[in-house]
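ARCHIVE CARD
Drawer: 12
Card no.: 0347
Subject: one protein chain, sequence and derived structure
Cross-reference: see card 0346
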Amino acid sequence: MSAVATLPRRRLGASGLSVPPLCLGAMTFGEADGASFMHKVSCDAETSFAIMDRALEAGVDFIDTADVYGQDGLSERVVGDWMAGRNNRDAIVLATKFRFSMPYGKGASRRHIMAACEASLRRLQTDRIDLYQIHMQDRDVPEEETLRALDDLVHQGKVLYLGASNYAAYRLVDSLWTSKANGLCRFVGLQMQYSLIERALEREHVPTCAAHGLGILPWSPLGGGFLTGKYRREQAPPPGARLEHWKDRLKGLDQERNWAILAAVDAVAAEHGATPAQIALAWLLHQRCVTSVIFGARTVQQLEDNLPAATLSLSADQLARLDGASKVAWGYPYDFIGRIQGGW
């Protein structure tokens, strides 16, 4: 392996955990069968190993997975086999998630959290998880129960930092208050869908993260692949593309606003001699509270294509044009507040 590249590090929120600006998402790792939603859009273990090798070499030492990626923990097993085979656990910032249905249960109860963590540790072949995240809030379980179980895992040394994903802003604030009031470890990161196409979390989540010191980890930063530039108006998806299989999602993206966003991305990409995907990723890295952007790759070439985004700087004019093309109607009370005090 060649010398490891150095990328600028960013602290995850107000925590002491530093990570690179790009995070390798492992959802596609391992050949998923027909029972998995990742069937036909994943890659085999050998390719996954090559992708992780190259990512680490390029300075992307942050890997995000989840127990439900693939089936029966397939993605975690692939990542675990890779780390064990190369004896490089200490070189990796490892993140995984729990919450959704697995053979041993589901949800955010103490019982499920303890079982889920132990199962993930076995599959990942490690003694600790650097960032353990709840995959979605659980309205059936008190937040204090979830946080106390996670706090115990931290004190046991099995988990180092805590994160949330797919939380409503009110529930996130309640969680942070519960942690503070009870002296429990709190969330330091928030993993949410965020892209030029999906900007809804700027209403409440971004201000909340800014006020309480959470780092945002965007998922689906390319709008499900739409912002790669592979897809064009009234043209069939290219063979093998993810949205060729997820036709309903592509149909939902066929909107004037999204084509206008893609046109703006194309224009800025041409100015930089970059790809549309690199511009879309770089835009996120210029947004408030964003720490590291999670991107996936099914081939080493896809990984290579995205790496330059980590150091790509956009001008104020380029950011304004991208913001303008992707702006959304905030609605009440945000528009009301903006008219009085300017912006939101």
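Annotation on reverse: The longest helix spans residues 256-272. The beta strands are 10-11, 18-19, 22-25, 62-64, 93-98, 129-134, 159-165, 187-193, 215-219, 293-296.
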